[in-house]
Specification:
single chain; Arc Repressor Mutant, subunit A; Rossmann fold; 6-stranded mixed sheet; 11 helices; 39% helix
């Protein structure tokens, strides 16, 4: 058979299986196609099928067990490395990384972080790759549509690598996790906003995320519930802070704003000041995520504190316990509201 662009068929098949292994289609410990299956699936000779498996074995990606077949290798040698896999870089994620860096130093671990840009395929590829390489631990902030990765995590063979889900997980997991209660954070924000004035509520989303952001949708649902059912306010949302104009505020009698992103909170605060609206008597503002950036502005912006320090303290405990037992630890952090002038 002639290869595309003169690439031999065995090399194309080797590359294809390598992609499947690194993407998580074949998990560590999982059996891959046998010689006969490669022959039938790809219409190649027995010799070509043997060469494909030999190259995968030479690359250290599979182990061949006589009489049983070929299996994706589970790395037994653990490296003194930690991987942090994030959906997007933000001020909140920067805080989490800073805390994890301090933790890594205590354990003499090298810390690396990777972005999957809220892409479930990339998240699965990164997790599989780091397990394959033998990283000691992987800390994952999952993509925000975990329905697309639930099956992956349910069948994940992590070998000797520790897996920790951090900050959020919507689908539940068989792994250790420490997350925050977004519902409680939103509840506290709504309670505070309702106490400032009689105006309606506005939720400002983050347009930077690609794909579905189930966390943001869940936050808005919670915000709507408390705003409408408990405090009897109309609740609206906008996709971008640029949609907020002075006439929009006046026309919709907006009195309370919950913002998902700190930079947007700062820009909205500037607008409110330019329009000479009284803060918080006419319009009150709460930011989700008490970052250092938020603390620099006047008036001070009331914020939901995600408590990343406490998250990492719990991670430290789970890390130590994972050496001595197989019990899964799952913690939920309760966010606090830092009340300032907004």
């Amino acid at each position: 058979m002639e290869g595309i662009d003169h690439i031999p068929i065995y090399k194309r098949l080797v590359n294809s299986y390598m992609r499947d292994i690194y993407s998580g289609k074949y998990m560590p410990g999982q059996q891959i196609d046998s010689i006969n299956k490669i022959i039938n699936k790809h219409k190649v000779s027995r010799e070509t099928a043997k060469i494909v498996l030999k190259h995968l074995a030479d690359y250290g990606l599979i182990v061949q067990i006589l009489g049983k077949g070929s299996f994706v290798k589970i790395e037994e040698k653990i490296l003194p490395k930690w991987g942090v896999i994030l959906p997007l870089y933000s001020s909140n994620m920067e805080q989490l990384i800073e805390e994890l860096i301090l933790f890594a130093r205590k354990k003499n671990m090298e810390l690396e972080y990777y972005l999957h840009y809220n892409n479930h395929d990339e998240e699965m590829r990164l997790v599989s790759s780091l397990i394959q390489k033998g990283y000691d631990s992987i800390f994952i902030v999952p993509n925000f549509n975990e329905a697309l990765t639930a099956e992956f995590y349910n069948r994940l063979n992590k070998g000797n690598t520790r897996i920790f889900l951090v900050d959020n997980t919507m689908a539940g997991s068989a792994f250790n996790y420490v997350i925050q209660s977004y519902d409680l954070g939103v509840k506290r924000a709504a309670e505070y906003l309702a106490g400032q004035n009689e105006g309606n509520f506005l939720f400002v989303k983050d347009p930077a995320w690609s794909g579905v952001n189930m966390v943001a949708e869940s936050m808005f649902a919670t915000f709507s519930h408390y705003g409408e059912s408990i405090y009897h306010r109309k609740v609206m949302s906008v996709e971008h802070h640029k949609k907020i104009t002075q006439s929009f505020i006046r026309k919709n009698n907006i009195g309370g704003i919950l913002c998902y992103k700190d930079v947007d909170s700062i820009k909205i605060l500037r607008k409110l000041k330019e329009w000479k609206l009284n803060i918080p008597n006419e319009v009150s503002l709460v930011n989700y995520g008490n970052t250092e950036l938020i603390e620099l502005f006047d008036p001070g912006i009331t914020s939901v504190d995600c408590s990343y320090r406490e998250m990492v303290v719990r991670l430290e405990q789970m890390y130590e316990n994972s050496n001595s037992n197989n019990i899964k630890e799952q913690h939920v952090i309760l966010p606090e509201l830092k009340i300032r002038e907004s």
